[in-house]
Write a sequence for this structure.
């Protein structure tokens, strides 16, 4: 029904996550309508991200132009505290808080036995290798607060605690701005368990 | 298009779109059900923690024309918190969820399997029990419930009773324990066969409350082999977690 190149574009767009055949067709026709330079810029940025982006050889965050990501290359960051996250996107979320000035380690997943993902599929060995090499004194386990993330945190705590460093887990509790009556039992239970003294 | 009320255990979840999940449940009255839980991946979601794997929940589902139901309400019946907070027990929980997921059929109620899973998770959450024996017990009892329980009191091949021959091997493709003349598969100890007999013979409580038997690993391996033989697939949860526990 469509010409070869348009058909190919619709097929390729349709392979992207969350893009169905109808959306792929709509985006393809939008690209057809925009000026050539806009389409070229889009194409160039897709090629560039594949050509230039690598994983940081220290923390396995997304890195560009060099072997280290921006966080690992920044001397002002506290090199002795490492925040362990599942995914590079989690780094963006933690950075937005402006509360953390240490470095990161990206596991690229979490233990998920139902999917057959064990420790060997994660960057766990590399994390252990960093502890002595970088004189790390604290690791903050910042995996997702779901069953897989909690299991990963428990497993890492078991490996890291005997190394004599502080191992902490992010707190679990109620979202700011939420109503207590809508909180689920598990979250509220943990929030009560993790209560802290109010400074008058 | 109807509203369905049921109780179920969350077997697994898949990410869907920006913030939703598909939740796979083993329900009491409707067998295995797949349902969309909207917005549960947002931190502000009131569903999120309730619809995690291992949760035992009371549900109100909206069943439209699609195969996927939609979760309207969910209330927790049991979190099995002691399971979630212990690496060994959570690994065992995953193994049982995977087996139940494979055994259960969609829209085909199996209250026996549901009751067995809830009971096994309760036993796993009871820290007085030896968690090591719960997964093998669940596997062999679930197999017996399916009509595929291993033969333990006679040779599965020549049918000679255990008193007249020594049962020395175990092969699930033959149906269970085998005598010296028919032996094939893996060797099996008399102690392991006795533990399996107790599990299937109504003495499960005694097995769980007794000190861990020396043949615990052997029983676990036999039960896993039997379940995998019945399902005709490897249980990924068992093998993915074997390196991090016990």
């Amino acid at each position: 029904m469509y010409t070869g190149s348009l058909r190919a574009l619709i097929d390729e767009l349709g392979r992207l996550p969350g893009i169905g055949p109808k959306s792929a067709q709509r985006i393809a026709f939008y690209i057809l309508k925009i000026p050539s330079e806009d389409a070229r810029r889009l194409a160039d940025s897709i090629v560039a991200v594949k050509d230039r982006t690598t994983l940081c050889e220290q923390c396995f965050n997304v890195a560009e132009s060099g072997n280290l990501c921006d966080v690992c290359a920044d001397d002002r960051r506290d090199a002795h505290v490492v925040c362990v996250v599942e995914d590079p996107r989690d780094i963006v979320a933690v950075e937005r808080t402006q509360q953390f000035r240490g470095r990161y380690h990206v596991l690229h997943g979490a233990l998920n036995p139902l999917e057959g993902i064990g420790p060997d599929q994660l960057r766990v060995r590399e994390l252990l290798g960093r502890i002595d090499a970088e004189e790390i004194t604290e690791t903050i386990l910042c995996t997702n607060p779901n069953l897989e993330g909690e299991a990963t945190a428990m497993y890492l705590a078991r490996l890291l605690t005997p190394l004599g460093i502080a191992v902490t887990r992010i707190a679990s509790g109620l979202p700011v701005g939420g109503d207590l009556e809508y909180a689920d039992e598990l979250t509220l239970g943990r929030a009560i368990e993790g209560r802290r003294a109010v400074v008058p | 298009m109807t509203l369905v009320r049921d109780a179920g255990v969350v077997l697994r979840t898949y990410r869907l779109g920006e913030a939703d999940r598909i939740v796979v449940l083993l329900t009491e009255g409707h067998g295995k059900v797949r349902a969309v839980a909207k917005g549960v991946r947002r931190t502000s979601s009131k569903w999120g923690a309730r619809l995690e794997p291992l949760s035992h929940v009371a549900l109100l589902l909206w069943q439209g024309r699609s195969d996927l139901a939609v979760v309207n309400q969910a209330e927790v019946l049991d979190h099995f918190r002691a399971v979630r907070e212990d690496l060994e027990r959570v690994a065992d929980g995953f193994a049982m969820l995977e087996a139940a997921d494979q055994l259960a059929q969609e829209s085909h109620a199996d209250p026996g399997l549901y009751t067995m899973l809830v009971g096994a998770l309760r036993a796993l959450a009871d820290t007085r029990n030896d968690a090591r024996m719960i997964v093998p017990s669940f596997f062999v009892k679930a197999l017996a419930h399916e009509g595929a329980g291993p033969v333990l009191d006679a040779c599965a091949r020549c049918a000679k009773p255990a008193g007249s021959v020594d049962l020395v091997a175990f092969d699930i493709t033959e149906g269970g324990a085998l005598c010296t003349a028919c032996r094939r598969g893996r060797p099996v100890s008399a102690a392991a066969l006795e533990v399996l007999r107790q599990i299937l013979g109504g003495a499960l409580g005694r097995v769980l409350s007794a000190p861990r038997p020396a043949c615990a690993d052997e029983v676990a391996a036999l039960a896993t082999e039997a379940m995998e033989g019945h399902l005709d697939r490897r249980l990924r949860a068992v093998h993915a977690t074997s390196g991090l526990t016990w």
Q: What stands out?
A: Helices of chain B lie at 81-84, 87-103, 111-125, 134-145, 190-200, 204-209, 216-231, 236-241. The radius of gyration of chain B is 20 Å.
